[in-house]
Amino acid sequence: MTAELVIVALVALGVGAGLGGAFVHRLGRRAAPRSNGVPSSGATPLELPLPGIVADIGERLEMALDATGAAVWDADLVAGTCWWSDTFPRMLGYAETPPMPFDFWEKRLHPDDRERVLAHIAAHLAGETTSYDYDYRMRREDGAWMWLAAKGRAFRDGTGRVVRYAGIMTDITEARRQAERLRASEERLLKIMEATPIAVNVTTRDGRWLFCNAQSVRLLGREHAELVRTPTPQLYADPAERTALIARFDREGPFRDAEIRFRRPDGSIVWTLSSWDQIELDGESALLTWLYDITDRKCAEATSIRAREEAERALSELRAAQESLIQAETMASLGQLVAGVAHEINTPIGIALTAASHIGEQSQMLCDRFAGGTLRKSDFTDFLAGLGEGVRLLMANIDRAAALVQSFKQVAVDQSSGDRRVFDLGGYVAEILFSLRPRLKRTRLTVALDCAEDLTMDSYPGALGQVLTNLVINAVLHAYPDGGTGTIRIAAQPDGADRVRIDFMDDGAGIPPENLSKVFEPFFTTKRGQGGSGLGLHIVFNTVTGPLGGTVAVQSWPGQGTRFTLQLPREAPLVLPTPAEAAAAP
């Protein structure tokens, strides 16, 4: 490399790297022969001082070109020659320097780049630009295309005429390939982001849009242009929610799945799961947010909540109706007891009334005879005999009525008041059975009671009476449906020191196995429309497990009978008053 070319190359490098080419053919001349990269003597020489220093610079430039793979050219427009550095043919894939005629460079230009590049150079040589800088494709020796970046400038004499131009060429094929891969990758990423069902947004902290994908447009119900013009705080159903999210992000950093509401232009609300992170876009720090539409899920949740509330309300109403029916069943049972006792009392009262009426008639007849002076000793004796018999009948039947009334009073008070007291279990069960005599008299059933003596309980006798009454009525209706004969046995005995076991047994029809697990369910009955409400045994279960604090179990053998086993504490648990009872208390 000659000193003058070194200086030219250095000057060219000072204005930037460039691509070169032999434009000798445009000048109508052929380039001078080359020898080891040095131009022929026909090239216009430069007068340069300090040849040793220049030669040293030239060697360094050669080393730099070899290290970087760049190439330098110098075109002498006056002489019509062009010099190329030895790195140029190597750049094109030549192992040895090939012949390089005047059209060597131009023939290798890519057809799509040729017109653009030549126009660019012509504009610079015409003085329209101070330097030139362009990229183009050139064909390698193996036929492949490579990308070159060319930078350089023209040199003018004192009159302004262009006398030469020089520059540097750099292989940017790999850089362009990487840029293309990056561009393709960005396009793929953009397509993925546009196709994703999740809204992806990039905004500044003050709410300015930097990016949004198609799902954001669909989710927020606005055209893209309108959306990016709208500050993000205005999109929130409550702008304070965005302020809270920014505060959370500052406090916690990236977070996921915050439930946020947005308002569309039509006023509808969109529920989203919002996730936040930070990103740098084009050198600017921004917020990256993902929005996943959960409006359908929130609507389903709201529907589910409403359905649950309606179900709970319906259940509450059903329970209220059930309690009302249970109370009605209890009062109906008490009403049957009243009717039965009234019927039972009617007989002794009728006999007593007949006896009293007979005594009255005899007394009036005796008075009439005494007043008429016709009273005889035999008449008075007959009167006294009839009076004694009448008094005996009166006393016997009035005592019987009094016993019925007393039994009914105790049972009725216990069942209606629900008071707790200490009572003798055997005596109380006997009273209950006595009060049920009117109901049992219409059947062909016998009731046998076997209760241990001195077996006392501190409990709720009314509740126990209700349980036993329902068991008796249930047996009459179901165990002996055709009015057959049979025996109901009630056995009560201690079960340890603090519990009592009561077995209620019948020898009737029994319960089918498929119905055994349902007998305590409310409204389950096999006698619908025949006197069965389906609440009798449900009341038994609730009463035994509720105020009495015990358990009840059932066993049955079809065709042989049924056994209900009650296990009760001798001292019932404390039953707290209901809110209504507490409010009514003085």
UniProtKB/TrEMBL annotation:
Residues 132-184 form the PAC domain. This is histidine kinase. The keyword Transferase applies. It comes from Azospirillum doebereinerae. Residues 57-128, 185-228 form the PAS domain. Its EC number is 2.7.13.3. Residues 340-572 form the Histidine kinase domain. The keyword Metal-binding does not apply. InterPro entries: HATPase_C_sf, HATPase_dom, His_kinase_dom, HisK_dim/P_dom, HisK_dim/P_sf, PAC, PAS, PAS-assoc_C. Residues 304-331 form a coiled coil. It comes from the Bacteria.
